[in-house]
């Protein structure tokens, strides 16, 4: 408005530009867009896994808000008179009755409930697989350790948000799960009974559980998670995405498609794909039919009670642990339940700590933007597979009754199998994985030095048959040799330059030992060198 | 860590990058970005038109699916059940709404992705990365600014202010912690007592009638609650969570535990129904062996031998309720359980 020329130019500008100008004058959007509108995102199928988590999280929030409009988080007891005939006349909490109403009397209510639950299950599964991708490709290395921690917190908070959520309907299954949790809390030395009393507002189950879990489930935990998701995404933008090794891709660039339009169309479209698939699943397949077993009563239970899958490994730990109890000086140490609780925490903590442990072993303070192929980090890959193995074995433990009935096995035998396999399985998995990784490294080395097996058999004049190996292209050779190889850290000289004996600390010795386990002889296959390559390619004919 | 001087040597050297001469000499050097290969849509306008039509068709399908969603919402009564192979009997509303909403969403996604893959430019581009770490100049400036700010605040010099401020900030959250005290009562001896006491009759959970010894036959499993506890009591769930009782009859000569026999009446024994592992109600009874199994975590107890644990994660036997018969011939409790029922805890002893 200040000058005529300015208002002239405004009149000429199209409407969209004028809106953008208005916003820029107040929010500075042009500066933001300059840096980000054509931001480059590398393409790889595994980069979609994080998107699945983000989108299912959005879906959970959308459907969750809808559910709060109908759900009554109250443990007041009423007699049910809704439209679900088998439950009519039965005493239940308002929480359970309103969940029945959502399922049977609200049009589309059941669909939204099922989308909410399916999306939650997929959210957790997505986070697991996404974290495996990040782990096995080494994407957690500097500068992304903090973002790994954000992701780890999202996983843990997601588990507890899921648990508090599926406890809300106050049906027989969910109440059994809450009872299990309360029993586990009681096992904590000294503070157990206090935490239980404070959490439930008195003795179990009391009248406060649903209201308290409700505020934890819809406000406290998702509020924190929303903040973490935003921080996670800001860091993804700030660090720029990692990429797999390939021609033209270096640690100092990022190769891919621009945000506008390609990535926006693909990622935006993928949101609709994820939402669409979850909606179809929810329309077709029942999840958590809370109406089958009736309201929760602490003296009733059904067989085959299972938590949602992501709590299954905690369930397994509790099921297969021997019932150790120590009574000393008038106190009880409930190891049979407390040890599983601690192991549950330790297995999660291992995820959080790993990036820092590996960084300490390598001593590498550089930034890493090129991903490792899992085979090129055999010890890390083997450790990851060992963890996953322990996790999977505990999932079997958590479903030992289901395995027993479906496969006609003895539940005692399954329990003993899980007890042993929890310790033996990861060791075997570690050894086998490492062997496979080293084998694949050897294959890569052979391919680089001798070329690709073409499948063409040639007969030489003297009768010998040979297979023709086609040399790889420069790009392929580069991709297969782009990974870096560390040499194991040494303790260093034990005598310094003045001849004074220097005793290596225990940590230095440990680090040297671990470093050898990661990068020592036999723990990685040396990359082919230029000399080796030239020697082989110059002397044609002999193998 | 004291590893800096060691680490340099064990770090690998950076990989060769694309330099014209390097490619000729080094068979493993980076040849740089590969040339762009055109797609069929880039060369053939008819193929591009086909892609355009496919995308438009997907978007149109989405619109139709949304119309179908609204129609389903209006047409199907909320309680209509239909048979659909292979799903079986399902809610018509739920299935139709789910499928139409899913289709409407999926087609938008499929259209956008197909558009991006076939018609938008697929030229790969490279952006430079810049180190996350600040340059030494920036760092020096920040450090100087911070030193200025810290000096001007005089926080380090005026220790009295600093110490009292830290004290105040450390103490103020205590108010919040204190408020949490109201979340629940102290445990005290609450977990040690149940609704059972001397003289309370054993009431059949199913019939709500007091039990007579002759109601209980060998091989049967009966659940009972204490006299005076009704299902519409405000605290019913909390009380039954501790007081739930299971009653079986075992031939007295089959009872191996001496105290169990003493506390029984004519072979009728009453045990807590709440598992001593994490508190599930135990409900699976094997008549021949007198074993009961908790369906949650498979702890198994031998009711003929003091309900000791014979398998599973439970840590101790089920508490027994001492029972007798009153003057009217009904089963009654001769006291509360001698020990806390349910999961073990620190104060249990």
TrEMBL record, chain A:
Name this polypeptide is given: Cytochrome bc1 complex cytochrome b subunit
What this protein needs as a cofactor is:
heme
List the top taxonomic levels of the source: Bacteria, Bacillati, Actinomycetota, Actinomycetes, Kitasatosporales
Membrane spanning segments where? 47-71, 115-136, 148-168, 180-201, 213-238, 267-287, 333-357, 377-397, 409-432
Q: Which organism is it from?
A: Streptomyces ficellus
Please tell me whether the keyword Membrane is annotated for this protein. Answer: yes
Query: Where does the Cytochrome b/b6 N-terminal region profile domain lie?
Result: 19-245
This entry's Enzyme Commission designation comes to 7.1.1.8
User: Which reaction is recorded as catalysed by this protein?
Assistant: a quinol + 2 Fe(III)-[cytochrome c](out) = a quinone + 2 Fe(II)-[cytochrome c](out) + 2 H(+)(out)
Keywords of the record, alphabetical order, are: Membrane, Transmembrane, Transmembrane helix
Q: Respond yes or no to whether keyword Lyase is given for this record.
A: no
Give the source's domain of life in one word. Bacteria
Automatic annotation (TrEMBL), chain B:
Q: Which InterPro entries match?
A: QcrA_N (IPR045603), Rieske_2Fe-2S (IPR017941), Rieske_2Fe-2S_sf (IPR036922), Rieske_Fe-S_prot (IPR014349)
CDD domains linked to this entry? Rieske
Write out the transmembrane intervals: 55-76, 96-116, 160-180
Specify the protein's topology with respect to the membrane. Multi-pass membrane protein
Pfam families attached here?
Answer: QcrA_N (PF19297), Rieske (PF00355)
Sorted UniProt keywords: 2Fe-2S, Cell membrane, Disulfide bond, Electron transport, Iron, Iron-sulfur, Membrane, Metal-binding, Oxidoreductase, Respiratory chain, Transmembrane, Transmembrane helix, Transport
Where does it localize?
Cell membrane
Residue stretches of biased makeup (Polar residues) = 1-15
Segments forming domain Rieske: 263-332
Q: Where is this region: Disordered?
A: 1-39
Main localization (coarse): membrane
Q: Function of this protein?
A: Iron-sulfur subunit of the cytochrome bc1 complex, an essential component of the respiratory electron transport chain required for ATP synthesis. The bc1 complex catalyzes the oxidation of menaquinol and the reduction of cytochrome c in the respiratory chain. The bc1 complex operates through a Q-cycle mechanism that couples electron transfer to generation of the proton gradient that drives ATP synthesis.
Q: Which family does it belong to?
A: Belongs to the Rieske iron-sulfur protein family.
The name on file for this protein is: Cytochrome bc1 complex Rieske iron-sulfur subunit
* Source organism per UniProt: Streptomyces ficellus
């Amino acid at each position: 408005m200040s000058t005529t020329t300015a208002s002239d130019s405004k009149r000429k500008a199209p409407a969209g530009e004028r809106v953008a100008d208005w916003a820029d004058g107040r929010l500075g959007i042009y500066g933001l867009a300059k840096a980000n509108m054509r931001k480059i995102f590398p393409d790889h199928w595994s980069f979609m896994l994080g998107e699945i988590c983000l989108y299912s999280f959005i879906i959970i929030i959308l459907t969750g808000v809808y559910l709060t409009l109908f759900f009554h988080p109250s443990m007041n007891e009423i007699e049910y008179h809704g439209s679900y005939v088998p439950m009519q006349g039965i005493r239940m909490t308002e929480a359970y009755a309103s969940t029945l109403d959502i399922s049977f009397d609200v049009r589309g209510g059941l669909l939204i409930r099922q989308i909410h639950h399916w999306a939650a299950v997929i959210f957790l599964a997505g986070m697991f697989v996404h974290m495996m991708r990040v782990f096995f490709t080494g994407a957690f290395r500097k500068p992304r350790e903090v973002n790994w921690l954000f992701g780890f917190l999202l996983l843990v908070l997601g588990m507890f948000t899921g648990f508090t959520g599926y406890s809300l309907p106050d049906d027989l299954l969910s109440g059994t799960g809450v009872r299990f949790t309360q029993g586990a809390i009681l096992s904590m030395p000294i503070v157990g009974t206090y935490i239980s009393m404070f959490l439930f507002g008195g003795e179990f189950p009391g009248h406060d559980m649903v209201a308290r879990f409700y505020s934890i489930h819809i406000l406290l935990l998702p509020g924190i998670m929303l903040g973490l998701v935003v921080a996670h995404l800001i860091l993804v933008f700030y660090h720029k995405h990692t990429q797999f090794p390939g021609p033209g891709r270096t640690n100092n660039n990022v190769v891919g498609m621009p945000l506008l339009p390609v990535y926006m169309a693909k990622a935006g479209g993928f949101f609709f794909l994820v939402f669409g698939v979850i909606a179809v699943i929810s329309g077709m397949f029942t999840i958590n039919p809370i109406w089958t077993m009736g309201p929760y009563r602490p003296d009733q239970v059904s067989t085959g009670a299972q938590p949602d899958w992501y709590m299954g490994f905690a369930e397994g730990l509790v099921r297969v642990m021997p019932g150790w109890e120590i009574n000393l000086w008038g106190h009880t140490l409930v190891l049979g339940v407390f040890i599983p609780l601690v192991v549950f925490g330790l297995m999660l903590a291992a995820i959080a700590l790993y990036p820092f442990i590996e960084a300490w072993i390598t001593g590498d303070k550089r930034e890493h933007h090129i991903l490792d192929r899992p085979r090129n980090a055999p010890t890390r890959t083997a450790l990851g597979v060992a963890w996953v193995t322990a996790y999977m074995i505990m999932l079997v433990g958590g479903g030992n009754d289901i395995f027993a009935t479906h496969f006609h096995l003895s539940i005692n035998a399954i329990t003993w199998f899980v007890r042993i396999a929890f310790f033996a399985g990861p060791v075997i998995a570690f050894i086998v994985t490492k062997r496979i990784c080293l084998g694949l490294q050897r294959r890569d080395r052979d391919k680089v030095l001798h070329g690709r097996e073409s499948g063409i058999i040639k007969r030489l004049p003297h009768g010998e048959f040979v297979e023709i190996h086609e040399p790889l292209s420069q790009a392929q050779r580069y991709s297969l040799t782009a990974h870096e190889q560390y040499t194991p850290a040494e303790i260093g000289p034990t005598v310094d330059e003045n001849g004074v004996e220097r005793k290596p600390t225990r940590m230095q010795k440990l680090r040297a030992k671990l470093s050898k386990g990661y990068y020592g002889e036999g723990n990685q296959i040396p990359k082919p060198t230029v000399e080796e390559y030239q020697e082989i390619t110059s002397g044609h004919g002999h193998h | 860590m004291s590893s800096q001087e060691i680490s340099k040597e064990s770090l690998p050297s950076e990989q060769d990058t694309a330099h014209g001469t390097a490619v000729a000499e080094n068979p493993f050097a980076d040849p740089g970005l590969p040339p762009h290969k055109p797609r069929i849509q880039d060369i053939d306008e008819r193929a591009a038109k086909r892609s355009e039509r496919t995308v438009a068709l997907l978007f149109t399908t989405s619109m139709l699916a949304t119309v179908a969603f609204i129609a389903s919402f209006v047409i199907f009564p909320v309680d209509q059940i239909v048979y659909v192979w292979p799903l079986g009997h399902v809610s018509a509303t739920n299935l139709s709404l789910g499928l139409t909403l899913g289709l409407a969403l999926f087609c938008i996604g499929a259209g956008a992705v197909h558009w991006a893959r076939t018609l938008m430019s697929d030229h790969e581009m490279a952006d430079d990365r810049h180190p996350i770490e600040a340059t030494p100049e920036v760092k020096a400036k920040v450090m100087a600014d911070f030193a200025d700010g810290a000096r001007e605040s005089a926080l380090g010099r005026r220790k009295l202010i600093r110490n009292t401020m830290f004290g105040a900030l450390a103490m103020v959250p205590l108010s919040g912690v204190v408020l949490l005290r109201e979340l629940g009562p102290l445990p005290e001896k609450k977990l040690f007592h149940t609704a059972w006491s001397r003289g309370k009759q054993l009431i059949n959970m199913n019939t709500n009638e007091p039990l007579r010894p002759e109601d209980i036959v060998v091989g049967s499993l009966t659940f009972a609650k204490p006299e005076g506890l009704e299902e519409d009591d405000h605290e019913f769930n909390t009380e039954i969570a501790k007081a739930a009782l299971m009653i079986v009859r075992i031939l007295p000569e089959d009872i191996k535990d001496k105290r169990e026999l003493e506390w029984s009446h004519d072979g009728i024994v009453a045990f807590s129904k709440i598992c001593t592992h994490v508190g599930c109600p135990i409900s699976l009874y094997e008549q021949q062996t007198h074993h009961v199994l908790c369906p949650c975590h498979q702890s198994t107890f031998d009711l003929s031998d003091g309900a000791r644990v014979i398998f599973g994660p439970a840590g101790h036997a089920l508490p027994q309720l001492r029972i007798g018969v009153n003057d009217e011939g009904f089963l009654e409790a001769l006291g509360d359980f001698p020990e806390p029922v349910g999961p073990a805890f620190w104060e249990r002893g």
